[in-house]
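Technical annex B. To support the medicinal chemistry partners, we prepared a structural model of the target in complex with zinc ion, based solely on the information shown next.
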Amino acid sequence: MPKTPYVIPCADDCPVKSDLEGIFSKIDENALDPRILCIIHKSVENFPKFSDSKARNLGFSALFDFCVNLGYIYGLQKEQEFRGGVYCENKVVFPFVKICPVCSAQKKEVVFLEKGSKKPESAVIGKIGEATLTGILDAYFNYLGNGFRAFLIRDTAEKKVDLVITDFKVVCLGEIKAKPLVSYPLCLELSELNEKKHQLVDVKSNDVTRSYLFIPHINEYFDLGKTTDNDWPFGAALKIVSDKKNVAKIITAWQQIFDEYAKTDDDAAFNWIRFLAFGGGAYKKNNIDDSKNRPGLDRTDDIKKGTYQVLRYGANYAIKCKEGNVKCVLVGNTYGETHRAYFEDIIKIRWTIDGTKTYNLFDAVIGLTDNRFNDEYLKKHLKM
Ligand SMILES: [Zn+2]
């Protein structure tokens, strides 16, 4: 087994040591675009003073969305062109759910778009999400000064574990469910264009005079510069988060959507901004965004898969460790906000394989918008 530059806390005669060496040898420290990493660090530096740990957790969850949003927007430009944008009010917008952000913001109600939603492929969503969430957690641990690091495991066919969270005294093996709550539309300004409302148009990068990240419900256009800029849109985004006021705005705007989303109840009357979130379902019989796109851990299929994975980590690795150093965690960018009861039924389960020693099903569920700990060491030392 190749030597890794990381400390594995188990003694040489611990039966799990070589497994952990195998996992650690696949750590991918370059999974996240360094420009996004820079934006994470600058944002955290400029975070507002949070009133409590809950507000702080929400701040990091909001930052996850902002970073993934930039990744989605970056992916819209292909060969110096933006295809299939939605023309509305002298602009071309690229929303990620089926509402027109310009009309909806004006009317303060859901304005359905038949065509033009630009949701990335699920493989892209997964890839950007996992790398970004690991980077966010790593930055969060650094912010807390808790001595932990988060590492993504390289994506290979035989990959068994998504990420490792460790303070080099314990090792958490984790399954990730990372999908944003909201991605705001890209908005392009052009010198000359006149089309029918909501007509789909292709735009050459050279024809774009200015680009913006449009936050519809607070009517904010964050300047992303020219799309021909070398480091578009990351360079401009770094400037945005270099201003503390902008960072506070990004978090507050996100939290408004989160609050609407989290109070979801099938019979409730919804504020339109809830439909800016992914997985909002139908509004007046129009499917705005499929409920399978719900963020983070908030989908029963993902909870099911995640539950099996942590059980497998337990049976394959945790029970082998003589020192009890291996923990099993489920990680998401949001908790199962609209599936709290579904989680609650199983969250404290302990299991046994030989009828004597018992183990936590989840040593922790880290969902940022809520974190649950069954393992005392993690609760005490992660301090989330
Ligand atoms: Zn419109």
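Notes passed to the chemistry partners:
The pocket of zinc ion is lined by residues 88, 100, 102-103, 198 (CB under 6 Å).
Residues 122-144 form the longest helix (23 residues).
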